[in-house]
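Troubleshooting log. The previous structure file for this entry was overwritten by mistake, so regenerating from the original sequence record. Sequence copied from the archived sheet and checked twice against the printout by T.R.
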Amino acid sequence: MTPTRYSRPMMWLHWLSAALILVLFVVGFVAARVLPFSSPLKQPLFQLHAVAGYALLVLTVVRLYYKLRTPQPAPPAGMSGPRLLAYKTVHALLYVGIFLMALSGINILQQSGLGISPFFDPRGLDFEVLPAVLHVNGKWVFAALILVHIVGVFSYQATKGDVLSRMGLGRG
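Regenerated output below.
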């Protein structure tokens, strides 16, 4: 029988991923755009960003492994046609986006000559390398995907019924 809700582990993995993504956006923005380069907080924030990025990458691999090995709920009831295609496409692109952002971040470190350790001196970062351009600009595409996902969830919730309970929220 197909479940109607995600399992507790999948819910935890989803919400932990969401929290890490929020941390990555906030910490990355503060480290790169708010703090002056001379700030003593610059290095620990860049390192926190890198550690959180690695954690999200590992969490996403675990999440995909678990997703492929356990029964998942069918798409929400009544979803068909273009909306079903958008649902599947956005979910797939979110996973792709996580991998591309993580791999471009790791590549920034490598091409800057810093290795792959998340404990680096940000003064050595080279933001002119191609992965940095992809990472810095890709965040906007990734943010747009997240926004589409959130709008889709709340739109469906408002018009078709309780979809939030599938991820542990709502009345289900």
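Helices lie at 8-34, 42-69, 81-111, 130-159. Archived copy saved in two places this time.
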